[in-house]
Request: fold
Amino acid sequence: MLEMRNLKLTLNGKPVIDGLNLEVKEGKIHGLLGVNGTGKTTLASLIMGISYPDEGNIIFEGQDITQCTISQRAKMGITLAWQEPARFEGLSIKEYLNLNRDLSLSEIENYLWMVGLPPTEYLNRAIDVSLSGGERKRVELASVMAIKPKVVILDEPDSGIDVVSLPHIMNGITEMSKQGSAVLLITHSEEAVSVADEVSVMCAGKVINTGLPEEMCQWFKSNCQTCNHIGTLEV
Ligand SMILES: Nc1ncnc2c1ncn2[C@@H]1O[C@H](COP(=O)(O)OP(=O)(O)OP(=O)(O)O)[C@@H](O)[C@H]1O
Ligand SMILES: [Mg+2]
Reply:
């Protein structure tokens, strides 16, 4: 459904994305593992249209969207979960989840339950500094779920999340896929990646292996964590 073909992007003379191929299948959760600086967030911005590749193509539902703008991609159903809903400071959570939408109260409540936030406690809370980092991430995830995107890119939704909140985040991600959204899940967490149907390992700007979560976690640990990731691990 979403395919990256031979993507390349050089920034400041450095090939950050270097011949990357990846396919995210309809309704599936695709995990993406890779050490720091390997180009995962850069890939997320290329998929979303925040930046454009020097070479290669992005195909979505059979259509070449490489040159489409962010808003065109958003209208097609491609969404990225922003790390911080800071732009909406001051809105209540209820208002935020219903922004540009027309949801019933019970739908809004349902999205909050999916990320483990009891509606009675959270519906009327303001989006401001009084929410903890983990609560903000969960609100953001609920808001992305309410969009019902065809594809969602989650860039480290588990970062800064404690062991108690992580299952709620993972439950939210699984619910999104059950709802029909394809998910590209960028993470460093072995636990988070276990909800994926398929996992790819990225190294030095390209995908170097793809397989089942458990298999790829092992492979990542034995190959990447001992490597200087110069891109020599091509398989
Ligand atoms: N605008 C830019 N100009 C120059 N270099 C950049 C730019 N944006 C990113 N980079 C570099 O590209 C590389 C990949 O960065 P990216 O943020 O995509 O990595 P990442 O895989 O998401 O890492 P992390 O796991 O730490 O989040 C890094 O070396 C980064 O410094
Ligand atoms: Mg990153």
